[in-house]
Amino acid sequence: MKNIYTLLFLLFGFIGSLPAQTTEIDHARALDIYRNIISFRTAAGQDMVPEMASYLAGQLAQAGFSDDDIHILPVNDTAALVVRYPGNGNARKKPILFLAHMDVVDASPEEWKHDPFILNQDDTYFHGRGTSDNKYGVMNLTQSFIRLKLQGFVPNRDLLLVFSGDEETTQATTNMLINDYPDLIDAEFALNSDSGGGSLDATGIPLAYHYQAAEKTYATFEITATNPGGHSARPRQDNAIYDLAEAILKIKDHEFPVMSNAIVRESLRAEGKQMGGEFGDALQRFADNPQDKQAIQTILANDDYDQSIRTTCIATLLRGGQVENALPQRATVTVNCRIFPGTRVDEIQSALERVIDNPELNIVPLDEYLSSPASEPREDVVDAIAFAVHERYPEMQLVASMSSGYTDARVYRRAGIPTFGTSAKIIGPESSNAHGINERFPIKAFYDGLDHWIDIIQTLAGK
Ligand SMILES: [Zn+2]
């Protein structure tokens, strides 16, 4: 045994870390936290986030975190939890934030095989709302902080657990932290458990680990056609529903310009290499030359990849008319856009106006949307993630990636805190059904991931 440690020290000593080792007690604690937090129905409108935050605060206090370092910060009917792990300051560096969100998308028990708010397990999976998004992350960060504290680990800089309470809806908790508690969460960078992760093929062979370094900007527009209306027995050519229908078809046919950045090119190159074949080849050619027309055509023809190289806008909701026997006075379509980083929301609004080409129609954004920049990958962070991932899958390639969805990371990036998504999740092609019914998480991946954050923390804030 001792020789193994010597060998491990020789292998890993240069970055000052030994791989973490979980025990039965660690496994039991992790499962207990997971089971407890899944039982809180932390969906919007249920008011359960503050209770879940107090439960977690209690667990951390028991492990030795001082009450002065534990903050439950309410906003509306939800709350944020911020827990400081005080360091000795030897690194003379700003703190690191560790992010997760405590809220979930709601679930109707009658639609599920099992009660979504009671943790269930079969031979392969844990089942329950949040098992994947994002209560695995909440559990894993919490148990990591607890284990390190119990082991007497003192980081060389402060570490901060920062759990939000409404990531899936308004992100008011994260905005509150940024706006009202800038000193509490001031940090050099943030690591997010809510994105990033590794993929395995169906036989368990590692494909790639994607750490998230950018997100597309989210924006929703309502487009409305109005008309004086009249009796349906006296039809006219002008009609709010027809005007809107024409606009919808123009949006359907519009293609936003192809774009790329270093993160997207790196990720497409890596996937292309892995994939091989004609399509893999197109991804690599695009990465080498984003002007390559043939490669662009091939990528745009693929529904899984076209959104990675451009802005997309898609009709999602429709309503119109007032009664069955009157000409419609109003018809509205909701259009959801995922905007490539670097493009402003008002540029997309102007593009929609141009495409629709009907000044009678009214186009309004539903909210004030702000874009977030990409985070330039940093060597220290990438090395730490690589160390944790290679503990489990020594061959796994690390790739920076951009998400078409968004997380709390966009708020931090916008506030100037570079943020990287690096969940401990390394799973096969099966779906985790996040946001859908029968959400699940593979049991093997659950236990295999329990050292992920400890490896990262010891690498970034060890001696
Ligand atoms: Zn999430």
Structure description:
By secondary structure, this protein is an alpha/beta fold. Among the domains are: 2-195 and 407-461, Zn peptidases (Aminopeptidase, 3-Layer(aba) Sandwich); 265-307, no CATH class. 35% of the residues lie in helices and 22% in strands. The chain is built from 14 helices and 19 strands. A 6-stranded mixed beta sheet has the order 1-2-6-3-7-17, with helices on both faces. Helix 2 (24-38) packs across helix 4, helix 7 (262-275) runs antiparallel to helix 8 (277-288) and helix 8 (277-288) crosses helix 9 (293-300). The radius of gyration is 24 Å and the shape is globular. The model is unreliable at 1-16 (pLDDT under 50). The structure holds zinc ion (ZN). Residues 101, 133-134, 167, 194, 407 line the site of zinc ion.
SSE blueprint and pairings:
Blueprint (H helix, E strand, L loop, with lengths): L1 H11 L11 H15 L10 H14 L7 E6 L2 E8 L10 E6 L18 E2 L3 E3 L7 H16 L8 E6 L7 H9 L8 E4 L4 E4 L5 E10 L1 E10 L3 E2 L8 H14 L8 H14 L1 H12 L4 H8 L11 E9 L5 E2 L2 E10 L5 H12 L5 E4 L13 H14 L4 E7 L5 H6 L4 E3 L4 E2 L12 E3 H6 L3 H10 L2
Parallel strand pairs: 3-6, 3-7, 7-17, 8-18, 9-16
Antiparallel strand pairs: 1-2, 2-6, 4-5, 5-19, 8-9, 10-14, 10-15, 11-13, 12-14
The structure holds zinc ion.
The site of zinc ion (ZN) has 6 residues, from loops.
